[in-house]
């Protein structure tokens, strides 16, 4: 039975394979034509019949399940598969414990499959029909051989038929192999290259094609890549053309440039697989050399699309730029494209370190059509590098490059490192990513101890630190990410001083499976690089995953170890997770590392491993079915840094480059692994301060260090860096001075003819603008003959270098045309030839006017001026030259733009042109004049830009301490071989008797030996071997006199005094004589003289000289009669002298003596209790009059006594309550109100304290307070007194001050209306009875009358205007006396203010009239009337009202009518009466007398109570 079961199992497995294998084709053909569907249905029916032969399987009950087909064939069905259990996403171990979640793998639906297959439908339609017919031919034979019946046999029968079964098995295998061959899906094969693309090398500007031939079925698709970046030929048709014909494919690259050098990969694929082939393309660039010939290839080619050849010129170029972190930097160039084609724009691309830049939040690019601009927002060190502007046209391209340096921003804490840079993310998985960065150039005051890595989830602002301890390695695996979320990272460096600022954040990275990321990144045009496989899910449901493979240690440091592996082949469709186990070497105990949660990514970082120990690692898979078997162990791995620090680079070599840069070369570090780059540092010789030259590591072994100080001496060193850290710094280079390197000079210009005779010609030219950093040593002239359009060969005319810019070419042939060119020479070599001159005919000149001046050059170029110099013309004409004319024009102007710089003829061979426009370019020319007239102009000089060079210095005049006059000129751009050349009136100085030239480094001094009028003139100085650095100084007669005066002062110096001698009185009456000098040396001496007698220090005199401050002092304890006279200080400081005196005689001396004695008496007084401030008065804002004084040096036992008019104020006096003492200040409040307390009697209750009794209104001060007030101080140390007389003038002064406070406290005038009129008023703090207040109307004093009155009520000053009229409008002024001139407050009672006040007055007046005339009951009626029943009631009420009011009576709110019972009367308009005869109890109630007129209504109410006496008695009984 075992063999039979094996056959059945094998047949079932083959059937499953065939069903799985044909699933793709069945779905593919389901959308075909009816013929295809019919053929495929027949094929499927045949296959089903052949596969399902009559098979008998006995069930437990001995029954068989038989199914008949349409043709009557019996087919036995196997037992149905059990229903699939509900899918679970819980991962369980072997003990069925939940250990985590499993994310299901992606499953493609049929729509996705159809989209991938539609591109191949047309190619396989007919082939599929043909293959179906061929396969049916062979299926019949195979079907008969496959008829197998499974029955229970005896052992003998089984053994006998074993050979037959083996034969049957071989037949089945052969049939299966044959069927695979005949299956159209089996005939498909992956693509392969028949002819691979081959690498090519081409010249720049040429086109090239890459070809390849590919075989494969179905027909493969092809994609081209450049350095692994997909090439989109449709998006760039001007650059690429891709073609595919009959399996032959090509990629054409048009107008190749240097950046097209790359690896190009052709990738082909179909459903069976893919294949790639790589070809390398090298584009060579033409070197700058001799002038290109007509057959030499040109960099720019003809553009047939527009019919022109585009030429590109880049001007206004950006220079080497420097920025700091956080700043914004812009780079820009102006681009000129010629010729101009309408609606055509070039392609402008910016590069950094040869990598194209794309616009982002950090990078902004702009192309205006003329200017290309790149803006770097918020600079970071990642932005440092070589920036290139590339302008691509249809004819070629042009580029310009310059370096951008980014300095570190200032650190917040001194000594901390600067921020790391270039943070990137690698190898991102579902919960894991590797973060790398580059170490900064500056470590700070100590070495970097490590780095902290921070992460932040995108969309939040919360940063979390990933590591607790700083990591030294510049690479760190971050775990614990949440799948599907995006993160950004930053890094901080730490040393002993602290933590640096954070780096720029990394690009956002998504935590997800790499395969999912690749699928999301793939666009519709990108080829698919995998195979499409369709599998059934049922066979893998509930399967425990297999073991992972290729488990390796990818990184190992002393901080962590990173493992990587491949997922298992058998893993189901619900995804797998992983457990990591470790084992210490030498033991068999495996320990699970991630016990809490399995990881989802095939990467894992292990921390907290023992450094130096060896470990083995292995991985297990798990899913909902359980935990699989472990993988193969990795082998022993020792926990230690595997990456060594790089070795020190070779010794650097520094060479000169420009005035501010140096080129540094060095040998690369040996045996370095994973080199990040090099940092270069520089230091000025003599200092130990090293500064970084670059803040971003460079990988080249050559670097140009910019931003150096011209003329300074530098040394350089280099250190390498990789992920492990920094290398040791290399040894320092040889010192190099920052100067421009010497190069060959530029081309001479302006070769012109200045004179011609029969067999010779005189030539002139202009020296090159750039001398290459060295003086021009001479010139060489070449010539050639010209006959029509035919030119001869160039020949040398002089074999010895010429020292001038003119040359007489001799031995020429008359009437022959010649062309000339000139070369300049310096110590570096010979320059390129100038442009050939025009064809010049050699024949004698017969003109009478002079030729053009020669040798034009410019000096002292400034923003608004320049000095033009020239030499006389070689040809003077008939008469000598007697003057010159200078012309100029702006460079952009035409020939009509020439204008004369002066009107009168200039006799000199130089001229200073003024009035230029700053930043404008000019050209100049000079014409010579003789008696015959003005000759032709010289060659044009320029263009010259009117702009002062940065750092330009002018000649200045200096007079030293010895009185020597000199002119000084400094230059900071001195180069090797540079010299200072002085001249007078722009002629070299040959007479050394007048000037002595002294030069030291970058400073030259021209010293006048004996200044006189002979030295007047223009002195100029030129620095050779520079770009025309020069300056001049004009010495005039007035200037010479001023310099001679200064020189005399320096020869015979006088010590300058900041202050002349002065005198001041000190404490105790001491006298201080003092002065101060502006400056002096430590050798300065002072001689103290009184009346021509030198005095010395002793009992009477005390001297002091502080040389640091220059203060000279002499002290005397007192002034006596014998001290009258002259005091003098004589100073001697080297050869400088100084004298200062003070005369004290006559009344001035006697007054000073008295003042000295007084000061001494004051000092004696202050030894005991005394008055710091004597008794005086003050008036507070509350108008309180206070007598105040300040006392000092008092003790508790010091007696203080007040008196008034020589009468002591005792403690029980009323005035004693007005005295207060606080912090050494005594006050006497004159206006304070004091309540006299009487003695309590036994019957009286305790009275309220005086403080609680409100003060009555009384004056703050009155004439009763007049008197003389005194304060006495005395104790055992002495006594003192102070007196204040408040009589007459004193009292008036107090009152004036009181009036001033009152006046200033007055508020602005306000207005209020009453029924009588309008009131103007002002409020004051307090009003005294003597204060004078006047009111003015229209600046005229108001006289008091019955209608207009003024007065004071409390603190209110008022003016009442009764019954105002229009005449009362106007300006009102209140003049209140303030002790001097008076203080005025004004109010304009006009306009709206008048209208509002007058309307309010009329309203109130009307209301008052209405109130006076309204109807009312004014008396006569009681409140309650009690009357006996049967009596008569008569009540009369007094009534008032104008007009006479109407009268009515009511009872209980009901009006009464006069009748027999109620008699109502109203007499004389004043008396209203009611009479009730014989009242009854029914008359009891509430009565009211109602009066009414047009102004109002009023009711007089009363109550009537009628009683019966008998009833009252009964109630009492």
Give a structural overview.
Helices cover 13% and strands 40% of the residues. Helix 1 runs antiparallel to helix 2 and helix 2 (34-51) runs parallel beside helix 4. The protein is mainly β. The strands form 26 sheets. Strands 49, 50, 51, 53, 54 and 55 form a six-stranded antiparallel β-sheet that branches. The chain has a five-stranded mixed β-sheet with strand order 6-13-12-8-9, with no helix packed on it. It has a five-stranded mixed β-sheet with strand order 15-22-21-17-18, with no helix packed on it. The chain contains 13 helices and 104 strands.
Our count of helices gives 13
Query: Strand tally, please?
Result: 104
Proportion in helices: 10-25%
Low-confidence stretches: 1-135, 137-149, 288-298, 522-540, 1235-1247
Oligomer kind: single chain
Distance between the termini: 140 Å
Binned strand content? 35-45%
The coarse silhouette is extended
Biggest β-sheet: count, sense, barrel?
Answer: 6 strands, antiparallel
Mean pLDDT across all residues, rounded? 81
Helix/strand/pairing category: mainly beta
Radius of gyration: 59 Å
Can you lay out the helices and strands and say which pair or pack?
Elements: H1 2-29, H2 34-51, E1 66-68, E2 74-76, E3 90-92, E4 98-101, H3 110-117, H4 121-145, H5 155-160, H6 162-182, H7 184-187, E5 189-195, E6 200-203, E7 208-217, E8 221-226, E9 229-230, E10 240-245, E11 248-253, E12 262-270, E13 273-284, E14 311-315, E15 321-324, E16 329-338, E17 347-352, E18 355-356, E19 363-367, E20 371-376, E21 385-392, E22 397-407, E23 421-426, E24 432-438, E25 450-457, E26 463-465, E27 475-479, E28 486-495, E29 498-499, E30 509-510, H8 514-521, E31 549-556, E32 560-566, E33 577-584, E34 591-592, E35 603-607, E36 614-623, E37 626-627, E38 637-638, E39 653-658, E40 661-665, E41 675-684, E42 691-692, E43 702-705, E44 713-722, E45 725-726, E46 736-737, E47 749-756, E48 761-766, E49 778-787, E50 790-791, E51 795-796, E52 806-809, E53 817-826, E54 829-830, E55 840-841, E56 854-859, E57 865-871, E58 883-890, E59 899-900, E60 910-914, E61 921-930, E62 933-937, E63 941-945, E64 956-959, E65 965-970, E66 980-984, E67 987-988, E68 995-1000, E69 1003-1008, E70 1017-1023, E71 1030-1035, H9 1037-1051, ...
Parallel strand pairs: 6-13, 15-22, 97-104
Antiparallel strand pairs: 1-2, 3-4, 5-7, 7-11, 8-9, 8-12, 10-11, 12-13, 14-16, 16-20, 17-18, 17-21, 19-20, 21-22, 23-24, 24-27, 25-26, 25-28, 28-29, 28-30, 31-32, 32-35, 33-34, 33-36, 36-37, 36-38, 39-40, 40-43, 41-42, 41-44, 44-45, 44-46, 47-48, 48-52, 49-50, 49-51, 49-53, 53-54, 53-55, 56-57, ...
